[in-house]
Amino acid sequence: MSLLEIEDLVVRYPGRGRRAAPFTAVDHVTLDVRKGETVGLVGESGSGKTTVGRAVLGLAPVSSGRIRYDGGEIHACTRTGRRALAARIQVVFQDPYTSLNPAMSVADILSEPLVAAGAGKARARGRVGDLLDRVGLPSDAADRYAREFSGGQRQRVAIARALALDPELVICDEPVSALDLSTQDRILRLLLDIQHRTGIAYLFVSHDIAVVRHLSHRVAVMRRGKVVEFGTCRQVTSEPAHGFTEELLLASPVADPLRQRERRERRRARRRTDVDPRRQGAS
Ligand SMILES: Nc1ncnc2c1ncn2[C@@H]1O[C@H](COP(=O)(O)OP(=O)(O)OP(=O)(O)O)[C@@H](O)[C@H]1O
Questions:
Q1: Do residue 209 and residue 178 come from a single domain?
Q2: How many CA atoms lie within 13 A of 116 on its CB side?
Q3: What is the CATH number for 26?
């Protein structure tokens, strides 16, 4: 059964300048995420991936369409409704340097969502050790400050914070793109391990199809605000139905330098003939 259902979602922003037309960042997007599943949302920069995640979180304006969570409509949720949802849907952002308050200790960062949800301070503190353990950090990390950690360790803290309320769904918005390759690999393994242990679902946003294929059950490919392809990871990455998916696969890293050059040239040739119609005529 689907946990999250996005149906015909449109997010439109007002145009900049007096006569500029509104800009459609998300254009009739339909997709769903089932319990315990990872859906990868992949596409080039500006295709609307983050905006889809933000609309689910109530942070982007829904112009039309529906978003349902566990059967209930959430696209027009009140503040109280949103607060209740916060325990069920959490988010991990791209940049672990800006998403954690450097002036707070890790214990405070991890207790904050629990206290906000009504747990007493002592009870919230009591859960910190377990949360650190779940993301592979030592218990003495609790008394240190986020600024004392590496990018990968900070992202572990951000993941622990997202897990604090035992959510059913975590929106991961480019959670590894600010990290070096070996740290990326460790964080992706951690996310997989957490999913195996808890049955959590992920909507995993990334520009990198190589990262997405690593952990997604299904993959949606976005281009210029639209989902151009949505299918199982195997279908989308082995038998892509859309030329743009092929393009993304071609752009993912390959070891052979000759193939790399061939791919670069094909990419350049495509870019020369390709203009985003959402931007045409906009001032
Ligand atoms: N608040 C806003 N006001 C106006 N336009 C916006 C706003 N937020 C996003 N956009 C535009 O919507 C489009 C989609 O942005 P979005 O961040 O969702 O893309 P993305 O696929 O996640 O790209 P990236 O990987 O670079 O973050 C972009 O062209 C962006 O400039």
A1: yes
A2: 16
A3: 3.40.50.300
In terms of pLDDT, which residue wins out, 23 or 269? 23
Using CA positions, which residue lies closest to atom 8 of ligand 1? 51
Any idea which of 171-180, 198-207, 245-254 has the lowest mean pLDDT? 245-254
251: confidence class by pLDDT, cuts 50, 70, 90: confident
Report the residue among 12, 24, 50 best suited for mutation to probe ligand 1: largest number of ligand atoms under 8 A from its CB.
50
pLDDT digits (tens, 9 = 90+) for 144-172: 998 899 889 999 999 999 999 999 999 99
Asked whether residue 280 is assigned to any structural domain, the reply reads: no
Q: Whose CA is nearest to atom 18 of ligand 1?
A: 48
- Token pair, residue 108, equals 């405070």
Give the ligand 1 atom nearest the CA of 14.
Answer: 4
170 in the same domain as 121: no
Of 241, 242, 245, 250, the C-alpha closest to 268 is: 250
Q: Which residues line ligand 1 (CB under 6 A)?
A: 13, 23, 25, 43, 45-51, 207
Distance 60 CA to ligand 1 centre (A): 10
ipTM: 0.96
Q: Could you tell me if 104 and 158 are in contact, meaning their C-beta atoms sit under 8 angstroms apart?
A: no
d(C-alpha 50, C-alpha 34), whole Å: 19
184-242 pLDDT, tens digit per residue, is: 888 999 999 999 999 999 999 999 999 999 899 999 999 999 999 999 999 999 999 99
Ligand 1 centroid to Cα of residue 249, in Å, is 22
- The pLDDT-based confidence of 181 (bands split at 50, 70, 90) is confident
Which phi and psi angles does 66 have, rounded to 5°?
A: -135, 150
Measured CA to CA, the distance from residue 11 to residue 252 in angstroms comes to 28
Pocket test for ligand 1, best of 9, 12, 29, 51 (most atoms within 8 A of CB): 51
